[in-house]
Write a structure and sequence with these properties.
The complex is a heterodimer of chains A (120) and B (716). Chain A is an alpha/beta fold. Chain A contains five helices and five strands. In chain A, helix 2 packs parallel to helix 3. Classes of the chains: A alpha/beta (120), B alpha+beta (716).
Chain lengths: 120, 716
Amino acid sequence: MRKVLIVDDSASMRQMVGYTLRQGGYEVTEAEHGQDAVDKLQGTPVDLIITDLNMPVMDGITLIQTVRKHPTLKSKPILMLTTEGLAAKKEQGRAAGATGWIIKPFDPEKLLQTVAKVLP
Amino acid sequence: MKIDLSQFRQAFLQESAEHTSTMESGLLALRSAPDDIEILNAIFRSAHSIKGGAGSFGLESLVRFTHALEDLLDRMRAMEVRATEQVIAVLLESIDVLRSLLERGADGILSDSEIELVERIEAHATAQGGPQLAKEDSAAPSTSHDTEPPSVHEPEPVRYKVDFRPKPEMFSSGTNPIVLLRNLTALAQAATCELHTDELPPLSELDPERCYLSWTVDLITVKPAEELREVFEFVDHIADISIRCIDAVESAFPSAVTQMSSMSQCEASTPAPADRSLSVSAPAAMAFSSSPGKKLQSKPAASTESSSIRVATDKVDRLIDLVGELVIAHVMTAQMVENFAPECLPRLRESVAAMERNTRELHERVMAVRMLPVGTLFQRYARIVYDIAQTTGKQITLDTDGEDTEIDKSMLELLGDPLTHLIRNAADHGIETAEARLVAGKPEHGAINLRAFHRSGRVVIEVSDDGAGIDPARVRNKAVERGLIVAGAQLSDDQLRMLIFEPGFSTRDEVSDLSGRGVGMDVVKQNVQRLSGTVSLSSEIGMGSTVSIELPLTLAILEGLLVRVADRTLVLPLLSVVETVAPSPGQMQRIAEQGEVVVIRDESVPLIRMRRYLGLPEQAAAQPGRQSLVVIVENGSKKIGLVVDELLGQQQVVVKSLERHLHKVDGLMGATILGDGCVAPIIDVAGVGAMNLFSLEVPINVSEQLMSAVQSVRVA
């Protein structure tokens, strides 16, 4: 089963995304912010990272940059999860190395489609 | 597949309530540090999270409201709008509206005053700074993509040629071109894929992290071109893509077999990015089959009042570990019992001891799950103090300490109101006006201190202020006036001050609309006593007052004194037991108006014969060598003696509520199950005392109720 790491400081958002992914047949792990995600990635291999951008401790953009610089994780697909459909935010995420994005509030089916779109 | 997210609504609401509290305390903290970017960020994040979730549940008003808030906060974050007192006041007002909107849920339509508030928020957002921030994504919570026209196309196959030329840096976005090709061909009825290797450098110059390959896909599909373009939605910045419609399908199109072989061909020749091999394991057309068709069960929506507890994961992990150990210990024990031989006895003892250790620890840890830090409660008081300061024009700060101190969740909830009373009282009655303080040589700012700490196995919560203090002389006058004491009663200053906790007492000549009509303090005392706690007060004129509430850590377990009455075993909470005495017959007297009393050290304590109280047969009169035993219990400041037949010992008992089985019974706190499996009622000392205060005769139905309660527990 493919594994997805959800990074969001909002527990309800993690629950909702997690639930949707489990229904879609994925295994889900959760992290509360970028640093938590980096820590969890050390021990657990994942196939995809879905991350919020606005988070305490380490924000999503920094997380993306960190992963992209990591010797073994650098080519992991990363979807950013954000309410900001702003071109600027999107560009910032892209520049950092995000693979794609999911816009909150998300439609569950659309989320699964997007995940399938980037998962090997 | 339809996925229903409404089951998370409750979690969202709960979380949003926490977010509003975070915002509130952040805003209050901002008053003394208006430029603190960390605080601003935290407030912004909270508003942002509420907005994000609100859209998922169709809470339109909430989305609209938080959008305006977020806008203002964003500009504050960007230092374009300063956190002035006015801005903070508007934001605090918004917190109340947020709470109300969260409560109202989907029916929440912004009232006129709320719309007016939105306008004021917007005015602040635009007033100080430059032009309004460009917000491309407005509050519209609907789905994000407008590129999905309802395709009622006639399914006529069309042939496309798709050129896909990734830029060398494609891999740096975590994009796998093979996945894109797979997704593209999944849309096709048939496809051929041509790989271009003309950019591929000699091996010595090849950088495995760059993409040198490009593809041309020739495909036949009934899907519209937009859908093909969708596949490349995320890569338009790192690839050149062109999709050309060639013409209607010619018959001589390669078969699916060719498609498969050509796919595997392109897969073989793609250089892998550093850490993984790119592989497409199934024919391209099956790319979307990875989601198992799990049936969705839609759970009934959680009831609004469902009480939930948030527990740190490590606490739960430890519980699981312990259960694991317990299971192992159990299996070992069971095996030994199964094949029992006398020489196994020491080992059997050992494993029973292990089980006991596990059970005890499990017990402790499970109790710990119910423990919550008092900080969650403390948060709300900053706002109360702020509001009082605003209305009275006083200058008051609230400092809190010991927020991490943990206490049972149910107690935490019941403590909310008493603490509100105490804090209002301190702010309203304790702290003087700024002028009065200056005259008294004190700093203009009054301080209220709220702290929690552990003291000898109990939790202490203290509310102190540096205000005027409580004048015992004034208390005396008031108490005499109210008929609480007789004029000239011999009472110490501390005893006098404790009178403010008596029903119907108010030291304020004029009733303030803030802290009620003098009903507050006695309610505080009652509530705390209900939690098996005690209240104490110390005060010095001109220096301030401190009210301490002392509470047991949890209500779910208590240290009990087991006593026998006839053939029944009863549990008395050890905390309320003062002493046990075996009085000589001369010590037991009957006094007019008080009934039977026992005289201990010149103090006469009213007696309750538990046999009579429970409607059990009286003990055979004056058995030789059999003395009555009296357990002296204390309820607040009143002592009562309970006459029992025998003391059985002291033991920790788990309190089981009876209210699940029948309504609340006065005089009964609950019941517990003893080691031998018997059910024993736990006596509520306050309840017993209250009933007996003026009449010796206990209404018979009390004892009936009590015993039937116990019966029903036994049955259940």
